[in-house]
Amino acid sequence: MSKRKLKRLLAVSAVSFSCLWLSVAPTNKAWAQTSREAEISTYIQQLKNRNGQVNYYAADALGKIGAEAVPALMATLKNKDLILRVGAAEALGRIGAEAKTAVPVLIEALKDDYSFVRVSAIYALSKIGAEAKVVIPSFIGALKDNDEYVRSSAAEALGSIGVEAKTAVPTLIGALKDNDKKVRVSAINALRNIGTGAKAAANELIFALKDSDKDVRSLAIDALSKIGMEAKEAVPALIEALKDNDKDVRSRAIDALRDIKGETKIVVPALIEALKDNDKDVRSRAIYALRDIKGETKIVVPALIEALKDNDKDVRSRAIYALRDIKGETKIVVPPLIAALKDKDTNIRFIAAHSLSKIGGETKLIIPILIEALKDKDDSIPFRAALDLWKIGEEAKAAVPALIEALKDKDAFVRRFAALALGSTGGENRVVVPALIAALKDKDKDVRSCAALGLASIGKEAKVAIPSLIEALKDNDASVRYSAAAALGNMGEETKGMISLLIEPLKDDGNYIGYLSVKAADALKVIGENYENKSATMPIADLDQVISDLEKALPALKGTQDKKLKLDSQIASINRSLNNLKKTRESRLLDRTLEWLAKNPLAIGGLICIICFPFIWFKLSQVRRKPTA
């Protein structure tokens, strides 16, 4: 056979084989479908593997496949193999909301002969998030199951539903008497999650406070706490629980008394007694409860003052905060807080100073403590001290050297508040301003921003900072730029030519553009008002430039407004300043003209001639044209 004939024969054979394959081979879609079905089938078979790890990964894989695996898993729920049914239910639970079509089959599985299947079915129904009205009756039924794990799982599922499960309260009340601890615990948790809807269970929960298991007692208290003011009948039992052998039970009883808000004449003395508890956490909880209940201050305040002598520093600190927050008792509260400024613990001294700064007064006493706190090794104290000094303001002049030193602190938070505090103290500007100018170059953007705001607070007396602030308008961070803009706006006389620099940042597309617009608008408002005050004396050329700059600034500001960002008041003020500046310019130009004319009387005659000449010429021309008689 020749080579040509052989090639022709091979070509025909190839075409024939291709046609045959295309006629019998599955389509891509069918192939993919067959492949997915095979994958699902493989994983389902792995569900019955006795190796727990293999079983777990198979259920997890089916969960990731999702809705496509649901029909096969529903069918598997009816398989004779126990392990397969359990695995199918767990896999449906992993699929979650996409497996809602399986709800009827899972409800049916609650009647399975094997408890493991029933527990897994409850788990799946809970994870799928089926309609409450559909599953609640089934869960209520499961609370009466003969297997304690099923009962416990049913209670947990009802708890996950929450308020909507209040129809289950009567059955859950019955479960509080279950012989099995985990069932009682799950029932209490469910009642706690149902909250105020579980009011009917209050008496049974009170009874549960006598349970032999401390966990049950603790959870029963939590449930009563969630029911809240609707559980006032529990107050006597909760007061009794303050004597419980377990400190956790006592602590939770205090929280519940605070939440239920029973009669203060009964509750407050019991909480004051709890201040003598041998556990520091219980004493601390009692302090917070006394602060929050807000009643019987005549006996509460002395008890809290006594707590300032507690051996535990955490208890003393909480007593300080509680005294600070009690309103209307300043005269009684301040002296013991002043005494606490001498506490042996640095943190307590700071907390006392911090609290006194909140109340107000006694500034001279607390500033030395705050200065000392700026150097504390505890990271949480120095920045709070700087914050307090910032809020105190001008009375904190004595802290200036310490605040300047704090600008070198390794913690950026400390440096930020130190910069703000330096701006508010009104200290020696020849020392403060250079320190803040240096802080404009800090590596932390927020420190740079706070340094600019500090200079803004100083205002006109910080004019040497203008070049540095102009440079800061080019900062990479928008927050620094708008802070610099605010500072320049507060410089008043020194803001000449700065308007265009304030508007330039508004071209940014960054996240800060809204806040930046507000700051720029505020600054321009101040500039406009400043120029109004000196418009009568400044050179006309400068006045013209200011008017021109403000006219350009207004459209830029209006362009940044939207529904959330309102600059109406600032724009109205800038418009008002602009109109007044224009009126002043017109008035000054007129005055200048009149003054010149007064100095040049001959010019007035010339001006009159120039004005009147056309009229005289017209009249003369008429006389010439008049015919003679």
Question: Could you characterize what this model shows?
Answer:
The chain has a domain at 596-625. Helices cover 72% and strands 0% of the residues. It has helices spanning 3-24, 28-46, 52-65, 70-76, 82-95, 103-109, 115-128, 132-142, 148-161, 169-175, 181-194, 202-208, 214-227, 235-241, 247-260, 264-274, 280-293, 297-307, 313-325, 330-340, 346-359, 363-373, 382-392, 400-406, 412-425, 429-439, 445-458, 466-472, 478-489, 499-503, 513-534, 540-559, 568-599, 601-625. α14 runs antiparallel to α15 (247-260). It is elongated, with a radius of gyration of 41 Å. The protein starts with a helix and ends with a helix. Mean pLDDT is 81; it is low at 5-33.
Mean pLDDT: 81
Q: What kind of sheet is the major sheet? A: none
The value of Rg in angstroms is 41 Å
Q: Please report the distance between the alpha carbons of the first and last residues.
A: 142 Å
Shape: elongated
